[in-house]
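Re-run with default settings, no changes from the original entry. Doing this only to confirm the output is reproducible before filing.
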Amino acid sequence: MTFVFSSIIRRKVSPSEVQFYRHSSKFDRLNWKYLGDPKNSADIRENISRRKGVGDIDEVSHLKSKYDCANSGEKDSIRERLLEAALRIPNVSHSSLIHNDGSPIVVKRCGTRKNYDFRPAAFETLSKRWGLTRTDTSVYTGPRSYYLLDQLADLEAALVNYAVDLLRSKGFRLVSVPDVLPREVIEDCGMNTRGVRSQVYSLGGELSNEDLCLSGTAEMGVSFLLKDQELQSKDFPQRIAAVSRCYRAETSKISEEKGIYRVHQFTKVEMYGVYLPEESAEGLLHFRDIQEEFFNSLGLEIQILDMPECELGAQAHRKYDIEAYFPGKDFWGELSSASDCTDYQARRLNITYDSGKFPHTINGQLALFPEP
């Protein structure tokens, strides 16, 4: 398989084609045929309400009508407001999710639960008892800060290498990605970077650009790598693996998830795919199969969930979560997920193929560390 870098703009194209496809504005790349059609407004409105309520299709429709009727002197100011409103509209949901009652659907369960003649201790209890973690620095570095020590640090490194080796055996190409990214790239991936509910750390101060943020996942770094690139369909699918530190400003307040779980920073092995539109649904299942193989090989009891719309990020068309049973806490906790983002990210990031067509992108987490 030819990797993405050697497939960028190899074909002969006219200067006008390059100018349009490589430098076309984000406004022009949005799917106005769908967003601007009043026949779709009701479906989009319902999709927004079933998700997190972010986005206003009525505002988009109103501004689009004003833009279409405005003179050249008025268009620029309306265009900016219209683009901002349109970018808040989430991806179209998979048709199977529309009539879901808002609960995850268990697709599959794997593994056998072990029977203990005692109450299993939780990860935090065992790791502290054996002196393999340190979590008493939160007064200096904030809640959920931690150190992994000695054999536990060795285990983390071994599991990362094991996950990477598995992905390489499946044809993934390994890349190293930056942890500091432009705010716009993170937003184009579907994450909100502003406001009190943002999960993104923003950088600031005299020595930093306020439009830079800490990456929440290697998916964002890989997306930045592919931004403004023209690919070739003959090289699809492109499958990329990356290992990175990830940063999330929000942590869980659920009692079962206390300790070193859903922390502010963690290590993750990421899967990223670029697919032809007609192949992304099958590609998502392939990512899910790899995750299942990985967790089964570790002897974990897992369940695969088809997630409802209320649990989808703005970028996701469909998402599967994988949870494991934690005997020390007697609950199911999320280990990873995989999402088909269709052309949502490609349009915003200007990732194209074969003369300006937009591919579909898929992302998934093979492994996150630490995990209880």
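Residues 4-87 form one domain. Residues 150-169 form the longest helix (20 residues).
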